[in-house]
Amino acid sequence: MIAPAAGLQVGRTSIGCTSIGRTSIARKLLMAASGAVLFLFVIGHLLGNLQIFRGPAAIDAYAHFLKSTPALLWGARLTLLCAVLLHGWAALTTTLQSWRARRERYASPRRYNVATLFSRSMRVTGPLIFAYVVYHLLHLTVGCVHPEFVEGQVYRNVVVGFSRPLAAMTYMAAMAALGMHLVHGVWSMFQTLGLSSGRWRPRLRLLAATATALIVAGNVSIPLAVLAGWLR
Ligand code: HEM
């Protein structure tokens, strides 16, 4: 193995005092911090969406509250946009760097980490989630790909939208990609923050898996409830 001058390449993380090592660590921290913001958004959004099970008045009032508080709405939108751009940039540059390193045989092509299906699919699930969010915004926020969108009537928009099996199934497939991305992403975030050593390791792995399972189940429950006729 040809090692970098004064740095050590372990899996996808560079540890050491070379500028490449420093840049990699800074990028990992940026990815973890922006990922944490997006993770918190997904949890908050799910809690808001679950209001749908309390009936049209509850979810419509919740959406109305957000829209009538522009500072909160636009503050959240700007924070999200920055987080998406930083997360995407860090992921793209890390991917390009690792491809270049493999081509130049800068690091050994052998894998030193036990790559799981989830970790290996991050570069596929990430862009899939991005494509889903674009479709989702056109469907339930802008409404231009929704058959009968009515501004402000969130309950109705969701129920009519998911009454089409293809749309409901697209959402559920996207939640599978989100789950695959989160289960590794949340664990990776803990590792980057240095929380994954010793006896915390199995607990944090369990926490990442449980949080992901709850998020996926909560999100999938909405299109499923519409298809089953429980929400109408
Ligand atoms: C089945 C699951 C989901 C449902 C039912 C749902 C529902 C909705 C609805 C109704 C809106 C429009 C709210 C309004 O205009 O007042 C919305 C907006 C949005 N959703 Fe979702 N959502 C789901 C999952 C997700 C996921 C997993 C993500 C991210 C990965 C996401 C990201 C967004 C974003 C970024 C917005 C725009 C927020 C804004 O107005 O700035 N959603 N969602």
Secondary-structure blueprint of this entry?
Elements: E1 7-10, E2 13-16, H1 19-49, H2 56-67, H3 70-103, H4 117-120, H5 122-142, H6 154-162, H7 165-192, H8 200-227
Antiparallel strand pairs: 1-2
Helix pairs in contact: 1-3, 1-7, 1-8, 5-7, 7-8
The structure holds protoporphyrin IX containing FE (HEM).
CATH class placement: Mainly Alpha
Q: What compounds sit in this structure?
A: protoporphyrin IX containing FE
Q: Care to count the β-strands?
A: 2
What's the alpha carbon Rg, rounded to whole Å?
20 Å
- Oligomeric state of the chains in view: single chain
Largest sheet: 2 strands, antiparallel
CATH superfamily: Fumarate reductase/succinate dehydrogenase, transmembrane subunit
Which word captures the global form? elongated
Individual helix count:
8
Relative helix content: over 70%
- What strand line-up does the widest sheet have? 1-2
Structural class: mainly alpha
Question: Which key phrases capture this entry?
Answer:
disordered N terminus; 3 helical TM bundles of succinate and fumarate reductases; two-stranded antiparallel sheet; binds protoporphyrin IX containing FE; mainly alpha; 8 helices; single chain; 232 residues
